[in-house]
Write a structure and sequence with these properties.
There is one protein chain. It is built from 6 helices and 6 strands. The protein is an alpha/beta fold.
Length: 215
């Protein structure tokens, strides 16, 4: 891991790390990177808490003492009247994740087009919620020293640039190798990227079948 281009004198080791995950992006890019084409999206899920721990461990191993403050997950929520099975699985998965006090899940209702189910439901407002929190938790709440953003959505770039310009936190990004690329910022200010390979993915893979109620 290369030395960050800037740091802040107020940070006292170990640095507080918050991992921000656009879950659809994290899951979808993992399927593209490590699963055969056409794999059903019920497969390939990850355990967000273990992924957060993995990133923090990598920072510490590379000479940046760190502790995991929180993992924040942003994702859509199916309508239980339209997709009862998917909504129930989504609820079970969120409940399982939040058994850890360090995990927070923010869900927003999926938007259903008029031609649904011939057209898929889509997430709405996830990128805005994520961008607002990246900036708010640094500039207003002082909740992290290091924010690691796991998403390829370029709509998040203005929030990352604002944190950098205000010097209220240090931003890094994460991506799966072979999953479709990392989040970049034009010019020389692109954050450090934690490139995660298949062995990393296998270490955080969640094989739980959330379509079935817990016994």
């Amino acid at each position: 891991m290369e030395r960050a281009t800037f740091w802040y004198h107020r940070v006292v080791a170990p640095a507080r790390v918050v991992v921000f995950m656009d879950y659809q992006n994290v899951h979808g890019s993992a399927l593209r990177a490590f699963w055969p084409r056409g794999t059903h999206p019920a497969n390939g899920h990850i355990d967000p808490y273990r992924l957060g721990q993995l990133i923090v461990q990598k920072r510490t191993t590379n000479g940046y003492p760190s502790r995991l403050a929180q993992v924040r997950i942003y994702r859509g929520a199916p309508n239980p009247r339209r997709q009862p099975a998917a909504a129930a699985a989504n609820d079970r998965q969120s409940d399982a994740w939040t058994r850890s006090p360090k995990v927070l899940v923010r869900r927003r209702p999926l938007r259903y087009p008029t031609r649904w189910p011939h057209e898929p439901a889509v997430e709405k407002g996830i990128d805005v919620a994520l961008a607002v929190d990246i900036l708010r938790l640094a500039a207003v709440d002082d909740s992290y020293d290091v924010g690691v953003v796991f998403s390829g959505d370029t709509d998040l770039v203005p929030a990352i640039e604002a944190v950098q310009e205000l010097k209220c936190g240090h931003i890094e990004v994460a991506a799966w190798r072979g999953g479709g690329g990392r989040l970049r910022i034009d010019g020389t200010s692109s954050p450090w990227c934690h490139w995660l390979d298949e062995s990393d993915y296998q270490a955080v893979l969640d094989t739980t079948d959330y379509s079935r109620p817990r016994a």
